[in-house]
């Protein structure tokens, strides 16, 4: 990429950031109530999310300048004098910068695949950013709304914290900036969303913002226990925004009132809990998946271990009793594999096994039919592999086996020359339900026939094994 193109790309990105921050700031300014800061202030969370998601973006001065212009322009366009608008922008930017620096220092880049510790570290960065931004923001708050500096600091801190807590997780966990991601979050946690709707309706009906803050906890916990970070973050945001609207009295007969700092801090803490639970559940699920992978997959090649392969193959064969579909079985043995190990070393032998398993996945991944797609592959010995192909006829199995043989020969010769291991393949087929041991024995016999014929060949069993009872 040329220097001019890089500069142009960065300029466009900076312009986009400026427009987004201006728009988000306008939304926040429009949510201001008399004698109070904004109820909803998304601009800081948006800017921090952009900087965290774009590696190295915080080093680009033009992004910071564009964001500053966006902040100032939004305030000035709503009647704020230039000097206070600049001070407010500095307060927001300093808070975002501090939050960013702490997050980078603590190794936080997002919370999509986060652990509970990552969520807590992200929260720590947000708290630090709110505290620093409030140092400058308190001065403006006092000059506009009166009171002491400490009251202004606490007001700014609480307002910024609840907005970070409700908006930032959504911005960091969404996979793509598209409606499909939101739609997926809504459908994968349908019951918690239904429960949240009911609880929000009850809270709205009761109109008691003090006690209603915790009404949505059951729905948030129910969603979090599913381990879906984005769905939980989206639900937390929805709940928090609804509670803020309830707190200011939206829809009530009385005039809207500022949100108390106690309510804002309570909502921020309430948002943290479900996110930690969701992260813990997701981490537990990842660990279980890794454990399951370790116990069912061969460490070297990634195909199924012998025991797991046999169990899955037997299930598929038993299913043939219901469908009456044909099944093919391939038994494969690498030729002269011990010679490869002796001459080239065990590392070369391991690489040959890995390469062969990759060929199997590539070729057999296209096997099967619309009713019974795919194939299962296992390592059943040192250099022995097996594959069951449900829904595959004997002619198709022979063709696939020949493609495997040819590709293995090409790969072995190109990598190891005359020391490379070709493959001998035995094919057996059956219709309906069939015992796995009999299929394997028939294919194994065909492998020995291929060995006797000079290796590097495919032999199909002479007879088609019929279903039990035929």
From TrEMBL:
The record's GO CC annotations read: plasma membrane
Please name the Pfam families in this protein's record: GGDEF
Q: Which InterPro entries match?
A: Diguanylate_Cyclase, GGDEF_dom, Nucleotide_cyclase, Rev_trsase/Diguanyl_cyclase
Q: What is its EC number?
A: 2.7.7.65
| Residue ranges of every copy of the GGDEF domain listed in the record | 325-463
Keywords, sorted A to Z: Membrane, Nucleotidyltransferase, Transferase, Transmembrane, Transmembrane helix
Q: What is this protein called?
A: Diguanylate cyclase
Q: What is the lineage of its organism?
A: Bacteria, Bacillati, Actinomycetota, Actinomycetes, Mycobacteriales
